[in-house]
Amino acid sequence: MKSLSKTSKTWVFIMSIFILNACSSAEKTAQSKLAEEFASQPLQPETILTLEDIAHLPKPVQAYLTYTGAIGKAIPQNVRIEFEADMFNKPGDSPMKATSTQTNFFGSFSRIFLMKASKMGLPFQARHIYSNQQATFIVRVASLFNVVDISGEELTRAETVTVLNDLCLFVPGILVDKRFTWREIDSLTTEISLTNGAYSVSALLFFNTKGELISFVSDDRSALQDDGSLKKARWTTPVGNYKDIDGRKIPTYGEAIWNYPEGDFTYGKFKLKSIVYNISK
Questions:
Q1: What is the pLDDT of residue 141?
Q2: How confident is the model at residue 275 (pLDDT cuts 50, 70, 90)?
Q3: Strand partners for 271
Q4: In this structure, is residue 11 part of a structural domain?
Q5: Residue 2 located in a structural domain
Q6: Domain contains 12
């Protein structure tokens, strides 16, 4: 194999610097939005969750909050979550290794999510921002150009479901919030609904007899199609492997599944790396 010429090496060096700078710029966008949210939603004095606070909730949800250790702890005002993930473009495809960091705020529901991955040597970044009842979703290749860049009402509705999913799975203490409405179906199943501005979404929550939430199912989320459009499909996120993290039982493994008429497609498998509540920056 011939070695690179001096000119070629210089070009590779310049392109590497360009990609790194572009990547830094993409992350700065997320960091800038985070700074805005921390400024507009500073931490307030803590409120401790009590048994009286959860008395109005369906029985399986009460059991869930008790099991997870939410009682006697401060009601979360925000959360930062890090995952390792295997992501799939299509059924049967090899996984794309990824890491993600997200921060959610609950005074005014907001979510800033950044995922980094690579495939065939090319780095990818996916950035979801949900704030002020508006959502954007961008995927960049090598941080140089966007392969996905969408926004609008359908995406915002879909991302409202994602926000609801985050809260149910990882922030059970927030479920006493008056912005949620409930319908108990049976001893292990409950419907939850969230209205945020013009967007109302709902999901079924499935529990086991231990009090663990084991699956979240919604028909209000849309899947991104190859042509860039969004198409409604049932979305299921089974979770498990609960572990004690700072006195709270949290699911540390989950999957994201589109339940298409032609068959289920598991497009993501997630492992929890860290979770921290009520952070100041």
A1: 78
A2: very high
A3: 84, 253
A4: no
A5: no
A6: no
Count of Cβ atoms closer than 10 Å to residue 247 Cβ: 10
**Block residue for tokens 């700065």:** 28
Please count the structural domains in the chain: 1
Confidence at 30, pLDDT banded by 50, 70, 90? confident
For the record, the structure tokens of 73 come out as: 């702890």
Q: pTM of the predicted model, to two decimals?
A: 0.89
Residue whose tokens read 């299509």: 90
Distance CA 250, CA 169 (A): 8
Q: Work out whether the CA dihedral 207, 210, 211, 215 comes out positive or negative.
A: negative
Q: Which is nearest to 141 in space by CA: 116, 166, 159?
A: 116
Structure tokens at 226: 């190859």
Mean pLDDT within 208-223: 97
Is there a domain that residue 17 lies in? no
**Domain of 92, in residue numbers:** 26-39+49-277
CATH assignment of the domain containing 94: 2.50.20
- Assess contact for 132 and 191: CB atoms under 8 A: no
Q: Decide: helix, strand or coil at residue 18.
A: helix
